Amino acid sequence: MNNTQNMSVLYIKTGMHTYSNKAFHDVTKSIYSYVTPIIFGIGLIGNIISLKVFNSPAIKRMPASVYLSCLALADSSVLVFYVLSEWIRRGLPWLLPDINFSILDVNGACQIREYLSHLSRLLASWIIVAFTAERCLTVCYPLMTLQTNPKRVLFVMFIVCALSMTYALVINAPHSFGEFIVCSSRDRYRYAHFIAESMFATLIFFLPFVLITFCNGMILHSLYHRNRSGIRTNDDSNIRLEFIFILFAISVFYISFHIPYFIVWCRLQIITNPASPARDNEFWYYWNGMLFICRPIYYLNYCLNFVLYCITGTTFRTELKKIVPFKRNRYSSVPTRARRSRMGASLKTSVFLSPQTTNV
Fold first, then answer.
1. What is the C-alpha separation between 39 and 75, in angstroms, rounded?
2. Beta-strand relationship, 180-185 and 172-177
3. What are phi and psi of 333, to 5 degrees?
4. CB 44 within 8 A of CB 127
5. Which of 32, 109, 110, 330 could join 183 in a cystine, given CB atoms 3.0 to 4.6 angstroms apart?
């Protein structure tokens, strides 16, 4: 009788724990479903405006503007091929449960979607690394910077990334679960998929983290010694210094927005390796809920660069005022009214002071 009572208590506690994980999963998934479209819309608009600003005549010839223009394109690609596609697969069915959105997981679309989402995220990470390295060379080794061509560097980077991500076309395939289709690794490539995804996480976060931290440390060290030596800067140097501030802001937020998602992802990757036993629903409710919390934070990395540019870049804000129509009209209308008032005042003065007027 005691054993039966203990088993009943254990069953009740387990059932309550499962219900708690299910509720946690539902709340986090609901937040993810509503927040992600907002992040996508704001990020896409901001990246388009940033691309327009960095291609303005005043700054488009600078190497830093080339890197930041490509970063805006890469972030937009991530928003379309990764953020939007994941929301269609995970968030939209939660909002519209009566509609089947498995079209992105059918054969062909599954492999292409995985390839483009991996490629765009890899490019976005390594463009930041290339931009950091370019700023580091500009500050620490100015003569070496004159010999580098940013367009050539970015082209080679694109080719290398495009070739290295072709594994996503091979190891992924659609799997049917009742009425739903899910794109995941093929059964015979489970170990290869585990190794490839672990290397991918290293390439888009851990290795860039080390390189960005090292280059930023060298930049700070060089700027510190220049400041102590009292070297004066001209206007061109001030613009380059603004790009360094932009770089620091991008680097800090890049690392901050990546850390929560990749900690949870790595933890989940370790405990669900191919050699681990099958997990129950309670396990997946909890960890999927954690991922639904961390995903929107991770998405902010591809959304808020425009805000960082506006905060840290004086030249960026100046060029932005020239592009935004209502700003230009408002500022241009003030001098026009002033000129008209001055012309009217001078006309009245000339009339009253003219000889004809005095004779009358």
1. 12
2. antiparallel
3. -75, -25
4. no
5. 110
Token digits of residue 314? 């004086």
User: Crossing angle, helix 150-164 and helix 109-140, to 10 degrees?
Assistant: 150
For residue 283, which of 266, 262, 295, 268 has the smallest C-alpha distance? 268
**Contacts of residue 4, Cβ cutoff 8 Å, sequence gap at least 6:** none
> Domain total for the chain?
1
Q: Which range of residues forms the domain containing residue 53?
A: 38-325
Q: Which residues of 177-191 are buried (b: 16+ CB within 10 A; e: fewer)?
A: eeeebebebeeebee
Question: pLDDT tens digit string along 302-353?
Answer: 999 999 999 888 888 888 888 876 544 444 444 444 444 444 444 343 333 3
In this structure, is residue 199 part of a structural domain?
Answer: yes
* Locus of tokens 């609901």: 30
350 falls within a domain: no
Rounded Cα distance between 187 and 274, Å, is: 10
Give this prediction's pTM: 0.80
Tokens of 151: 């367009």
Domain with 64 in it: what CATH number?
A: 1.20.1070.10
